[in-house]
Amino acid sequence: MPINDIVPLMASSLTGVLNVVGQLDRLVDKGTKSLGRAVTRAAALTATDAKANASGRPGPRAPTGAFRGSITHVAATSSGTSTVAFVGSNAPQARRLEFGFMGMTDSAGRTFQQPPYPWLAPTIPNAKQHLRNEVGAALR
After folding, report:
1. DSSP 3-state assignment of 71?
2. CA 126 to chain centre
3. Alpha-carbon gap, residue 95 to 131, rounded angstroms
4. Considering the entire predicted model, what is its pTM?
């Protein structure tokens, strides 16, 4: 086959490959955005579960107020192949409530025997299910 016949075929093949690559890039971008929305929704549902736990046992009895209001989620961010969101509280008592404060002495010299009232750890099984449901919906 003469070179003059090969060059147009190669250009046509290259154009086809570039179109496929472009379509794949758009699909990945769309998938990443959908995954981010799914992870954010799962985190919001998990934060709601944590607030419910903070309203009574196994968590503390804090149905209203600053602690329950401090429980929130941070929307998903993507970096490379990872998409993450965070659920938690920035309240000073959050860690003490979750893990307890047994036999510890504070800066004022008081010794505490506060058992744990976990409000976040019990949400983990539901968080996994929320994530499965949301990612499944995003893939559909």
Report:
1. strand
2. 13
3. 24
4. 0.72
- The 10s digit of each residue's pLDDT in 12-27 is 566 666 777 777 777 7
| DSSP state string for 116-131 | P--SSGGGHHHHHHHH
End-to-end CA, the chain: 47
47 neighbors 130 (Cβ within 8 angstroms): no
Q: Which residues contact 2 (CB under 8 A, 6 or more apart)?
A: none
d(CA 124, CA 26): 33
- CB 105 within 8 Å of CB 111: yes
Encoded tokens for 14: 């290259």
Total residue count of the chain as it appears in this document: 140
- DSSP designation for 112: E
Judge whether 85 and 40 are in contact, CB under 8 Å: yes
For the cut 90, the answer to whether the pLDDT of residue 42 exceeds it is yes
Q: Taking all residues of the chain, what is their mean pLDDT, rounded to a whole number?
A: 82
Residue closest to 75 by CA, chosen among 48, 38, 126: 38
